[in-house]
Amino acid sequence: MSSRRKVLKSITALPLVGGIMGPSLISAKATEELVLKPAARDYFKELGLRTFINAAGTYTSMTGSLMQKEVTEAITYGATEYVNLDELHDKVGERIAELLECEYATVSSGAFGAMTIGLAGVICGMDTKKVSQLPDTTGLKNEVIVQEAHDIAYTHALINTGAKIVSVKSAKDLEKAINKNTAMLWYLNANTDLGEISREDFVALGKKHGIPTFIDCAADVPPVENLFKFTKMGFDLVAFSGGKGIRGPQSAGLLLGKRKYIEAARLHTPPRGTTIARGMKVNKEEVLGMLVALELYLGRDHEKEWELWENQIKLISDSAKSVKGVETEIHVPPHANHVPSLKIKWDESIVKISKDDMRKALRDGHPSIETVGNKEEVGITTWMMDPGQERIVARRVKEILENA
User: Fold this and answer.
1) What H or E segment, with its residue span, contains residue 187?
2) For 85-110, what is each residue's pLDDT tens digit?
3) Which single residue of 5, 202, 292, 353 could bond 404 by disulfide (Cβ 3.0 to 4.6 Å)?
4) Residue 344: in which H helix or E strand, if any?
5) Is residue 245 within 8 Å of residue 221, measured between CB atoms?
6) In whole angstroms, how far apart are CA 387 and each of 8, 89, 180?
């Protein structure tokens, strides 16, 4: 374990005062010095790259989440031995299915990769000639029905198979759109509140017409219940990102659901070569890392973790709104990124800095802090922070606002 991780582990073990580490235990400055203590070799510094405190969330552009030491140990272990790749996927798929009480599972190259191979499995089944044919879908079912409000950029994962997206608004429109070329019905859980068709009705329509249903839940953990909820609801395939809330490898994901579709999906993945998903390789290190990350996530005290996030967000909120003219709002997004989050707003005639300049000041300062937001507000989450970093963020936010 690096010196930095040992320090963070010791900080985590400290008792809490009023939900946060009390000033009598460790000062904000001392916390900052400990948290920012470098490892023996600073690879990113050698490359001229700045690291940052992640007050934004599990964004791919910000490299997702940080893995726990047990996960990195599993990855390191995987790098020390040879093993048959298909057999490893088989065994880990069975283990994940057992853990998540579903029919079958596989580790994919992110949720995006899960979408591509999942649909490919539905289109081709176990026919290896069809597998090699994609993305040419001539003579194959090649249409995926999606609610118009769910047709986002990531549906490109479906188009990668050679399929076409058919957008609909209502359940009535969906039934009209079904024809002999309809391969699958795809649902975006993050946009549940934006579509006219509920998840339950979507599943029912799929069953009524004998068409498999797929739900994308990429960023929808927590809550932990979601890992079980949608397969039990009746969706044939469910996708999750591995490197977000589960804190597995950023390049990994989970595809859960019906065995027949997942076994067919696997025909498109390495070590097979003449397939559209040859480049979506998930090697032994990531497979083991994903399994261990899932085991750790399921064993976590989710209530205690949620309480920690609430206390961290409140600390930053209280610090920000102590500045005249500043208002804050603590909220929890209903589906994706379902964690305590903070919106910071202010009257720019009193606090004379724009929201974009505030975010830039946080990014360019020391330590660098990444946030989200727009011209109206600055957004902050704490769930991707190391314990103690919330104190640094609270101090820097107040400092910048006061100086403005």
Assistant:
1) strand 182-188
2) 999 999 999 999 999 999 999 999 99
3) 353
4) strand 341-346
5) yes
6) 7, 34, 54
